[in-house]
């Protein structure tokens, strides 16, 4: 995370980074335009994601309003993507290319301060880019749900509203439910501790116990292993990779950590052998390469 950096310096850093990884001059020019406008808007201010949201609101209020649904113009899409990319580069030092579009960077007015504060807190805690991205979508869904129920301020959220939102998780995997509940618990705890809500909603959330339901068998029979191998898709590159991982585990007994760490130079195609250093024991191991 790049703390206390001016908007001008951050925009310049991002532009230079984009020039290294992108070769589409038309796209670069569109992003340069947005970054230049944001630099003028911010003046000598240090960067914050809240300032980026202010810029989007001001920019599109001038154009007749802010659109944050699926019906949006290409220009607005570019502005949102650029501001989100700037936030991710500032927070995590990465540029994540994508083709999707979400308007959730600009949170609804009454929820904006508390939600931006929540994400600033989790980023400072050092939580991963993936965690923050997933959490944004969960909070986004929560706020849409509350809006549909006519709830537009945090202090109006009731235990019943909370329970009804959780019912929408029906059909998700146990792990998916646990992920959503953990995010909600952290979000509600932040709202309560910062005085945005009076009811400790985090304590009213159910606990997701997934250990028993998600456990895999400790032993697979030969017939079960054969069914797993036969069910693997082997046409796409991803399918072939998955099939190879299944074979390495089933035929050679490799642990998942050893499979994950396997490199191309560990394979001797001429001798049809795999040579690795086992992660658990740190001992060398030489294995035959399966015929498949």
From TrEMBL:
Q: Where is the Tyr recombinase domain?
A: 215-292
Keyword DNA-binding carried by entry:
yes
InterPro entries assigned: DNA_brk_join_enz, Integrase-like_cat_sf, Integrase_catalytic, Integrase_recombinase_N
Q: What SUPFAM superfamilies is this protein classified in?
A: DNA breaking-rejoining enzymes (SSF56349)
Q: Which GO terms describe its biological process?
A: DNA integration; DNA recombination
- List the keywords (alphabetical): DNA recombination, DNA-binding
Can you say what this protein is called? Tyr recombinase domain-containing protein
| Taxonomic source organism | [Clostridium] clostridioforme 90A6
